[in-house]
Amino acid sequence: MTPKTAGKSSKTVAVISLGCPKNTVDSEVMLGKLAKDNYMLVKDPADAEVVIVNTCGFIEASKKESIDTILDVAKLRKSGHLKSLVVGGCLAHRYGDDLKRELPEIDILFGLNDVENVAEQIKGNPLASIAKENAASTHDYKRAPMLPDSLNEATYVYDASSPRLLSTPGHFAYVKISEGCDLPCTFCIIPKIRGHYRSRSIEDIEQEAKNLSKQGVKELCLVAQDSTWYGSDRYGRPQIAQLLDRLAQVEGIEWVRLHYLYPSRVTDEMLDVMAKYPRITPYFDVPLQHASNRILKSMQRIGDRALLDKLIARIKGKIPHASIRSTFIVGFPGETDADFQELLDFLKTSELDYVGFFAYSKEENTPAGVMADQVPEKVKQARLAEAYRVQETIAEKSHQRWVGETLTAVVESVEDGEVQGRTQYQAPEVDGLVLIEGLKNPKVGQWLKVEITHAHQQDLVGKAV
């Protein structure tokens, strides 16, 4: 995001976005709305009179990060220019009443249905003109927060007409193709926070892609809670293959990247479309969560170990050079040493390129949260470390297949003579990088060919062709 000044407003506003790329899109819509309403946007919260924290409330670690960020921002009343602390996002939607009670530092709270109303909320806040000397415990002024009902179902979905100001580098953007989720995973609170699954229309997403292309965006990263279920609610059956077909033909777009695929819903129709278009990156982000049949059943995941093995084989059969990333939960209630060993064995046989592991987080109002045989934290952390150790060896071996190959890459950063980029097999922010040597006058967002010379655990090294 670049600072923007327009119109009559003299209020400076900063937005801090936490959590996943889906939350990033919401933050960018807020930025767009604020810019449209003539607020002065700044990057550094210390320079802002109004700071908006768009929170995450998915697991315990993300909740802690959100609370810590809110408290850190509150300190700017003394050291910065802060006059109004505004909190939105998943944590605010989920725990609105608790936040009102426990964090008097917050001036305004808003839920997920009010993403595009953020400017109106700030505009009506009388606190912007009130200097606060001490916000550590109590306030002696009249508060005027928007008070969310944490039980209200989220129904908001942005569209191509929503104002949006990108916070990502100009060459790529996240595009949220749907909201919410209807899956019954016992560990997950997202359906209760984000609401039922609701898709945008193909035409609306295509229009947004065209708008982004005109702004110079060349990579579309499609995100949802479950991208493979896209269109089922709107069209009566999944339409992700049809959507990909349309987006692959948008002029100016180099890469279309698909995230968050539910394993049992990856169809041959979708694989065929991905294989058809070079613009659709041969990249599969499939959160598998576990490989033990007993744990998968307890998680209420659709499918079993055999389905996961067949899925990997189907992907590699249709697109042999595909890159596959996944996420797994260790320490789920009832997970035994044998269950964990099954997960490690699966990692060794499937040879995934990129993997993220999470220690199970016990969440209230989820079936898994009240299950017996909760795994001790010490055991979770030991298994987490072991899973990462095993995967590091696997990834280093897997990435050797790129040595000697010439891949397309985009420059992500140029700093102190070091040029870092990504190939079509690496997603922004979550995967490894390619260190590019021999590139004269490199520029962020530049597309080029790179001959890979070395492979490490996560990263590649190559020279510009």
List keywords for this structure.
single chain, 465 residues, alpha/beta, Rossmann fold, pyruvate-formate lyase- activating enzyme, OB fold (Dihydrolipoamide Acetyltransferase, E2P), 3 domains, five-stranded parallel sheet, five-stranded mixed beta barrel, 20% strand, globular, disordered N terminus
Task: Give a quick rundown of the structure.
The protein has 465 residues and is α/β, with parallel strands linked by helices. It has 15 helices and 18 strands. The protein folds into three domains: 12-129, Methylthiotransferase, N-terminal domain (Rossmann fold, 3-Layer(aba) Sandwich); 172-399, pyruvate-formate lyase- activating enzyme, CATH 3.80.30; 403-464, OB fold (Dihydrolipoamide Acetyltransferase, E2P), CATH 2.40.50.
Descriptive report:
- The strands form 5 sheets. This protein has a 5-stranded parallel beta sheet, sandwiched between helices.
- It is of the alpha/beta class.
- Helix 10 runs parallel beside helix 11 and helix 14 packs parallel to helix 15 (377-398).
- It has helices at residues 21-36, 60-74, 76-79, 90-94, 96-102, 118-123, 190-194, 202-214, 232-235, 240-247, 268-276, 293-299, 305-318, 337-350, 377-398; strands at residues 12-17, 40-41, 50-55, 84-89, 108-109, 172-176, 178-179, 198-199, 219-223, 255-258, 283-285, 323-330, 354-359, 406-415, 418-423, 434-437, 447-455, 460-464.
- The chain has 3 domains: 12-129, Methylthiotransferase, N-terminal domain (Rossmann fold, 3-Layer(aba) Sandwich), CATH 3.40.50; 172-399, pyruvate-formate lyase- activating enzyme (Alpha-Beta Horseshoe); 403-464, OB fold (Dihydrolipoamide Acetyltransferase, E2P) (Beta Barrel), CATH 2.40.50.
